[in-house]
From TrEMBL:
Organism: Shewanella halifaxensis (strain HAW-EB4)
Residue ranges occupied by any Glycosyltransferase 2-like domain in the UniProt entry: 7-102
Alphabetized Pfam families for the sequence: Glycos_transf_2 (PF00535)
Transmembrane regions: 201-218, 230-250
Family: Belongs to the glycosyltransferase 2 family. WaaE/KdtX subfamily.
KW Ion transport (keyword) present: no
Keyword Membrane: yes
InterPro entries found in the cross-reference section: Glyco_trans_2-like, Nucleotide-diphossugar_trans
Gene Ontology molecular function, alphabetical: transferase activity
Entry protein name: Glycosyl transferase family 2
Amino acid sequence: MKKHRLSVILITKNEADRVEACLKSIVDLADQIIVLDSGSTDETVSICKQYTNDISITDWPGFGKQKQRALDKATCDWVLSIDADEALDDEMKQAITNLLSQDCIEETSYRLPWGVTLYGTTLKYGRSARAVLRLFQREGSRYTLDEVHETVVPAPGKTGKLGGLLLHYTHRDYGHGLNKAAQYAWLGSQKYARKGKKSKGLWLALLRGIWTFFHIYFIRRGFLDGSVGFIVAMTYAQVNFNKYVGLWLIEQKRS
């Protein structure tokens, strides 16, 4: 028997081809589904209306601020933050069900193992082999307000880890992956500039890119994911290089 209520928060824009799989994976768990859409021009909102009436159309202030807006609307004691290109697998759904059925939950937050799936391969190594903090007690939690790569700051207490996978279908195709990588790199440049981080020159940008590839492909064993692991390591290396080049160019414009 369920002892704790769950709010699911989701931000969207033009995700009609992926959002239904996400919603189907959480609809049986959620007591409240909150969607913030920042101006979809496809059928995203219509699809979401089949699963919830709690939909708001908003501007786009950046990832951190948008997710905080969604969190502010949550009313249940636990919150699951999920993206439109993600879905819970059956083992993860059962793990959350079991957790919410406990009388007393000692942890205040939980990490969910990521199942990054690209080009037909679910990656097990490299930077994809990590667990992301997505399930947390509402009271006392907040988001950082970063433009990109925002994080949850949970209420003080222990952080646990659940079984199963949070499947992440990050790219529709290679072209979409390239566009997403470019967007994230430039947002990262602006974030670093706002926080006063220094680029320290173009040569260091190059070295950062090389180190990123080495770290993901060799140290974190991305090579065990085969050819897709190589593509992913190269993509992350390019993003890191571009991020610091963008920061350097911002610095040049200011000087």
